[in-house]
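User: Can you predict the 3D structure of Ferric uptake regulation protein? Sequence below.
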Amino acid sequence: MSAEKQKDLELYLDELKTIVKKRGLKYSTQREQILKVLFNAKNHLTPEEIYQEVKKENTSIGLATVYRTLSFLESEDIVSSISFGSEGKKYELNRGEHHDHMICIKCGKIIEFFNEELERLQEEIAKKENFKLITHQMNMYGICEECQKKDQ
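Assistant: Sure. Here are the predicted structure tokens for Ferric uptake regulation protein:
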């Protein structure tokens, strides 16, 4: 891991330690391991995928612990999730960089994107409706290029 990436990870771990201390909770290596998995993830992960990764280092962790920790991290805005209805959620580390998602309804692939024009249009609509926009999340559902090719 590069020195810069290690420094970024340390910032997230420090934030976690601060939040846990403020809440009067015990700092645990399990929370730390889950945060590290999300930090190093290249994709959005299900709780089960996070569990499998953490289990490689900590065989005593339970799936329920992963779910509780993800709920806690999401309530503290350290992670965010995308709901797939009855199929559950996928999680990502909240890196503070706004982006939206295109989600394939066939394979579940998630494509992140940012579009200045779309952002401007959303702000314009909120202003027109006299709506104070605080934050937003846009998820577009469709079929990714790979799945379209498979269907041909």
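The mean pLDDT is 91. Residues 3-93 form a domain with the Arc Repressor Mutant, subunit A fold (CATH 1.10.10.10).
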